Amino acid sequence: MTGLPRPLRWERILDVLARLAGVAWFGFLAWVAITIRMIPLLRENLEDPETLRQVVSILADLAFLALLVVLFLVRRTASRKQPGFLPRLVAFLGAFGLTVLGLMPSSSGAALVWTAAGLEVAGHVLMLASLLWLGRSFSIFPEARRLVTTGPYAIVRHPLYLAEGLAAIGLVLNHLSWIAVVVAVAQLALQITRMGWEEQVLTGAFPEYAAYRSRVKRFLPGIW
Questions:
Q1: Angle at 122 between CA 116 and CA 126, to 5 degrees
Q2: Which of 209, 186, 198 has its CA nearest to residue 160?
Q3: Residue 145: alpha-carbon gap to chain centroid
Q4: pLDDT per residue over 16-40, tens digit each?
Q5: Of residues 1 and 23, which shows the higher confidence score?
């Protein structure tokens, strides 16, 4: 990098640091899921429906986190970014704000528990599909790498956030309380703000984004 202009050199350095930070963060979350959540459960009776539900949920989390680690290592360099600290803060809180609900007591009632588990697993499956399709264009912050308009992205412009919404409903049901509902509403507001910033970046980076935006709904298929 010694032959690069100073601004470009710093961009490369920041990109490497961002990759390492992403790998460290998601690796840490995976370690927490295994050591603090999974291992104690494996010492209990796995025939208990609630224990089994939690194990299934943790395995879905681990698959998602493992894919994120890989994508952070191989993702493309961003061609355009939303400037400023606030868009990054909103993106981070939108992506991880609901994790605080894991500290709250679980709901009781078999029907509610399994409905929550079903929504969480469905959300994680859609997240994995969206991430695999997005591939090396993945980003947490509002950045442009490559425009993806096929697969899940032909259904809505933000399938990853739709998937997170399904998982969020399951998480709220699993920790049902007025606090959980307030946190979920706040997280949805952050995600909507995040979508707007991402679309500003994509519109500036890709002239064809305007046509894509006119024919594909933002978040809910056929509605909005």
A1: 145
A2: 198
A3: 17
A4: 777 788 888 888 888 888 888 788 8
A5: 23
Rounded CA separation 103/180 (Å): 11
At 107 the pLDDT is: 63
pTM (2 d.p.) = 0.79
φ, ψ (nearest 5 deg) of residue 83: -75, 160
Closest C-alpha among 104, 113, 102, 99 to residue 50: 113
User: Distance between CA atoms of 147 and 18, rounded to whole angstroms?
Assistant: 21
Q: Which amino acid is at 203?
A: T
Task: Express each pLDDT in 78-89 by its tens digit.
Answer: 888 888 889 988
Q: Give phi and psi for 219, each to the nearest 5.
A: -135, -40
Q: Which of 3, 25, 1, 14 is nearest to 143 (CA)?
A: 14
CB 79 within 8 A of CB 205: yes
Domain 6-215 has CATH 1.10.760.10: no
What span, in angstroms and rounded, lies between the C-alpha atoms of 138 and 188? 20
User: In angstroms, rounded to a whole number, what is the distance separating the alpha carbons of residues 199 and 210?
Assistant: 10
Q: 171, 107 in Cβ contact below 8 A?
A: no
CB 98 within 8 A of CB 183: yes
Hey, where are the domains in the chain? 6-215
